[in-house]
Amino acid sequence: MPGGDFFNVMLLLWTFVGRGVDGERVTGVLHGRVELRGRYGHSPDVHGVEWTKYSAKNSSKKLIYLVTMPNNITCIELCQNMNFNLQTMSLILFNLTTEDEGIYEEKTIFKNKSIKYVNVTLSLLFASKITVSSSPGALTLKCEIDGEFKLLRWFRNGLPLLDDQRFSLTENNKTMQVSNLTSSDCATYTCQVSNENLTSAAQIDISGTITNFCQNSTGGQFVALIKPILFPAGFSLLGLLVLCIILIFICKYYGRRKIKTASTEEPVYNEPTFVQEQAATLTVDPLFIVYQDFIKPKDSHQSEDFGYSTINDVRDNVQLSEAT
Fold first, then answer.
1. What is the pTM of this model?
2. Which of 48, 128, 154, 205 ranks highest by number of CB atoms within 10 Å?
3. Are the C-beta atoms of 109 and 115 separated by less than 8 Å?
4. Which residues contact 82 (CB under 8 A, 6 or more apart)?
5. Cα(84)–Cα(71) distance, rounded to whole angstroms?
6. Closest CA relative to residue 178, chosen from 217, 124, 135, 230
7. What secondary structure letter does DSSP report for 206?
8. Which DSSP symbol is given to 214?
9. What distance separates the 2 farthest-apart alpha carbons in the chain?
10. What class has domain 21-124?
């Protein structure tokens, strides 16, 4: 730390200690929300409250909120991302940035004219970045973290690391070393830190960091090999598909035209040229018995004789009638 900054911070701390200021630490997360709670709240003995911020880089002091009981609240500066809770006398900060880090002082003025000070040190927890260094057959990733954390986890392509001896963690899990590199190690790594309900993460894709290794690996060689031909082949296949569709539509169009032309012409029927065979003559066997109930008797007095007669009897009767 430069000498000037160190002197300013020590002077600031000495001011607090010499004045008998109580203090506490609060950790927020980048782009998150945090509440700096008032020590005495909405007490009937309180006459007014002042919230002031001291920068961590220098000893400059800025008055933020001025509260005069019962309900007079005035925002002096830095009100864009701040609110005030009158019931708890708390200062609420949201959408935190690194500029919000520092020491906040609550000055409570009581009705008996006594004054008490409480300071709150706000620090942000966030994983700023991941640095990568490589050596033959090995890879080292280090997670750069600001603030205090309770848990740090590493992910590869969004999944927790497998229980593999190739992965070793040091420096409170902030540094991870991968040995015996394979093509599967060319992936996206995530460093996630958390503290109570706060979580922050940093991410890096090492395929763009150690390009030589990833392209020389089995997977990298395959990708590098097919990449020059992948797009031309895709466009050629697409063009062939479009051409086939056009040919199908053309064939269907001309097929419909031929059907319509053929339907408008009169059909021509060809006479059969083969000789039809004549039907064979059927042979009829002569009857030897004739049913004669239909023959009218010549004599009216002659009774009808129904029954059956032979051919010869019928023939004799016919000859006799012709003779008479």
1. 0.52
2. 154
3. yes
4. 64, 65, 75, 91, 92, 93, 94
5. 11
6. 135
7. G
8. H
9. 179
10. mainly beta
210-255 residue pLDDT tens: 656 676 554 444 444 445 555 577 778 888 888 889 888 888 877 7
Tokens of 48: 């007014």
Concatenating the DSSP letter of every residue in 47-101 gives EEEEEEEE-SSS--EEEEEEEETTTEEEE-S--TTEEEETTTTEEEEES--GGG-
**What contacts 51, CB < 8 A, 6 or more positions away?**
36, 63, 64, 65, 84, 91, 104, 105, 106, 107
Tokens, residue 151: 């848990």
Separation between Cα atoms, residue 10 and residue 14, nearest integer Å: 6
DSSP characters over 104-137: EEEEEEETTS-EEEEEEEEEEEEEEEEEEEEETT
Q: What superfamily would CATH give domain 126-212?
A: Immunoglobulins (2.60.40.10)
pLDDT tens, position by position, 257-302: 766 665 555 555 455 555 555 656 656 555 545 445 445 555 555 5
Tell me which residue of 5, 110, 114, 101 sits closest to 53, measured CA to CA. Answer: 101
Q: How far apart are CA 245 and CA 249, in angstroms?
A: 6
Neighbours of 156 (CB within 10 A): 18
Residue 165 exposed, middle or buried by CB count within 10 Å (0-12, 13-18, 19+): exposed
Q: What are phi and psi of 151, to 5 degrees?
A: -140, 135
27 in Cβ contact with 198 (< 8 Å): yes
- Domain positions in the chain are 21-124, 126-212
DSSP string for 9-36 = HHHHHHHHHHTT-EEEEEEEETT-EEEE
Residue 104 CA to residue 66 CA, distance in Å, equals 14
